[in-house]
Backbone:
């Protein structure tokens, strides 16, 4: 019985350590919203609270990919794939930016 209780506690801790979250450096979650406006600006939203990031999210809810980012197409491609497959993605923002500019995005099957 004690072994089962210990396994449940350890399993719960592992589950909660993988929880979807936003912190000052960005968010790790699924991509819930992905859209492009007429001017070509790309917006990314997660179910998390983007306001927790150390930047100013657009409308309090969206990170952006800068039009001048050299890795713009690669980030967009990764996010579009993650969105399509409902995979979790880590979005690292450039702290202090208006629009919460995404510095990089990462997927990892270990999450």
Residues:
């Amino acid at each position: 019985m004690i072994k089962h209780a210990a396994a449940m506690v350890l399993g719960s801790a592992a589950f909660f350590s993988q929880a979807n979250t936003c912190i000052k450096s960005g968010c790790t979650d699924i991509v819930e919203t992905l859209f492009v406006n007429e001017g070509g600006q790309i917006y990314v939203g997660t179910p998390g609270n983007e306001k927790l990031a150390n930047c100013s999210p657009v409308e309090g809810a969206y990170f952006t990919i800068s039009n001048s980012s050299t890795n713009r197409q690669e980030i967009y491609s990764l996010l579009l794939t993650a969105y399509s497959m409902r995979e979790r993605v880590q979005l690292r923002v450039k702290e202090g930016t208006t629009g919460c500019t995404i510095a990089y995005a990462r997927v990892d099957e270990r999450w």
Notes: The first strand starts at residue 21 and ends at 23. Residues 2 and 8 are 10 Å apart (CA to CA). Helices lie at 2-17, 72-85. The first helix runs from residue 2 to 17.
